[in-house]
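Can't paste images in this forum, so I'm doing it all in text. The chain is below; anyone willing to post the predicted structure tokens underneath?
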Amino acid sequence: MNRLLFLTILLFGTFFFAKDVFATANVYYSVGQSSSNLLAGTSVTLTLTSGAAVFSVAQSGNIGVGDRVTYDTDNKVAYIAAKTNADQMHWTLITKTGGTPADVSGVAVTSIKHEYTSLFAAEAGAVDSSHINNTDLTVADVVLNIPCYYDSGPDTTAVTINGYTTDGTRYIKIYTPTSTTSEANNSQRHSGKWDEGKYNLANSSGSVFEIESSNVKIIGLQVRTARTNGNSSAILCDSAVHDVNISNNIVRNSGLGDYVYGINIANSSISNLTIWNNIVYDFNTGLINANTGIRISTSDGTLLYNNTVHNSSYGIIIGYNDAIAINNIVNGSGNSNAYVGYFASGTDYNATDGTDDIGAGTHNKLSQTFSFVNSANKDFHLAPTDTGAKDYGTDLSGIFNIDIDGNTRPFGAAWDIGADELIYLESKFRGYVNMRGNVNVR
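Text version of the structure:
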């Protein structure tokens, strides 16, 4: 063989081999409230070929990505990484560190279980020798995915994400699976309104969810603080972290404490935060009346997009003039407490029912009347009759293009302001129309 050709093959073969072997892997460890065996059927067998799993019986339980599968006579372990067919027999399995498990044929399956019974346990346990075996995700070269499932009741243990070393490609993602074709048998995500039948994290003793590591994504959770006295936050960042994304969450207060915050960015050295498509409400209790929906104390680049803040003593407070707010609704915070502080240049297209001068932008809308589907029952989807937010937003599709429900923006002439993009049906009927059963049109 020509020596140059041989060296070229060797060089590129080594490159592609290295790229394949050392490519960043995704690991998945699930959270539920039950440690029960979710395996469906009896005498179930499993065949694995290059990670493609075929169960002999459809696995119809409340299972999905991150769940642990135990199989074979020596109790091998693998984790669900994807659902690959609607027949519920075909899935993708990976090892604890994101690799491909060894092939097997027709071996017995012992169990399918959620890996952890609380988010607190998952955060602490993911680094042990049975899982990543490293607190440094850059050394382990993995993305840590923690999908959260609802089995029964809330997850009641407060959690702090800390002690991890991360970077922009080896990060932590905590979320609720939504796709019933590629992730789980059942969507675990709320539908833009608080749902006790979906995953929710609730605590009454202090801050509920604290972020002390960088490169963390919090997507689609329900987080509730219920402290009856003292201060607390539903979601808190109080360390000098960076690159935190908080999106598509419902954040609420049901306690009576003072200095209670929905999303509280409480350290001036935090950088590169993006907070979008969240609904935050009822932070208006306590004797001091100082509670706040979203509080930003950082001085380095916070972006607030399409959030809806309702019924809070203060809507959005900015401690420094380095936060940009676009397409947000603040409703029910009066005439002087909706948008507090100095917003950075680029702030625009925000709305409030009060008379606050937001202080930046020429398209902000004051003294608006918002029409929600049912604000008394905490449903803050826009109603078709809305005239305060519908079609008044600006296009942010270069950053994201969905609303809190996962609907594509825009629907209609332009983006809507707030977390919800109003999707409605206009139809004309002639003749006789007969509807039976449950019909829900929003």
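The domain at 32-113 is CATH 2.40.30 (Elongation Factor Tu (Ef-tu); domain 3). The mean pLDDT is 90.
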